[in-house]
Amino acid sequence: MSQAIANTLEPSRVGAAHASGTLSIRQVRKQYEVKGEVLPVLDGINIDIKPGEFVSIVGSSGCGKSTLLRLIIGLEDDYQGDILLDGTRVHGTSLKRGIVFQEHRLLPWLTVEQNIGIALENSPLSEPERRKAVQKHVELVGLQGFETAYPHQLSGGMSQRVAIARGLVNRPEILLLDEPFGALDALTRAKLQDELQRIWQAEGITMILVTHDVEEAVFLGDKVIVMEPRPGRIKRIVPVDVPHPRKRTDADLNRIRVDVLREFNQLPPDELVEEIPHRAQDLIFAW
User: Fold this and answer.
1) For residue 81, which of 27, 48, 188, 268 is within the disulfide window of CB 3.0 to 4.6 Å?
2) Three-class DSSP category at 148
3) What's the CATH code, domain 7-109+171-285?
C-alpha cells in the first residue's frame, strides 16, 4: 500500500486560511459475507467532525472502529450511506486523508528522512521544497539529529514519531490514528500522547483517534465517541470541554474518564464511585 495514504489533515485551530477537514458521516452501514452468511459490522453511523477537531473513538473489540477508519481512508468503497469530506463523497485513497497505524511500517532500508520523504512521491513540490518539508516535520516530531538513522537504530517511540511525521508531511486535511501507541510501554505512550497533543495544536489538523484506552481518548479528544459491538453502533458521544494543553491530573478529565468507563460496565453505579483524591491522582498520572 502506498504510504501516500498515510497523510490526511489540515483544519484551522491555528487560523488556517480555509476551513478544510470537515467530515460528515451519514447513516453508514457495512457488512461482510462470512461462510455464506451476512455479518453486519456497522449499523447507522452518524458523526459530524469540525475542521481542526480531535475526535477519539473507543469501543470493545468487534465494534467496527478500525472498519470505520478503513472506510474514511478510502480502502473500501462497498458500504451504504455517505462519508463526505468537505462536502465531497470519499472515494478511494487520497493525499487529503492520511493514517498512522499501530505498527510504524517504516521501510528498514531507508533513513528517517527518506521514510518521511517517501510520502511525497506524488507531490507537485520541487526537490528543494520536499527537502524543506521533510526537515520541518523532522523538527516537528523532535527528531533533529536522527535524519540519517535507520529504523533498527530507533526506539519504538521514535519510530512512531517518524510515522506521524510521514503522515503529516503532505499537509492532509484529516489524519487517522489507528491505535498508534498500542504497542508502546506506558511511559513512552504517555510522552507521545503529550507530543501528539502539541503537534495537533501546532498543525491545526483534524484528527481521528481509534483506541482501546479510555484515558488516552479523554486526554486527547474534544469529544469521545463510544461504540458498542455486533453490529457496531454509536452508543454515546461524550464532549470533553477541557481546554488544551491538558494535564493528566485535571479533576474534570478524571470525571469524564469515569463517566466513559461506566459505559463499558467497568465501574459501579454513581453512588458507589468515590472521587479519586488529588494526591492519589498525582501518583497515578505522574508519568
Assistant:
1) 27
2) coil
3) 3.40.50.300
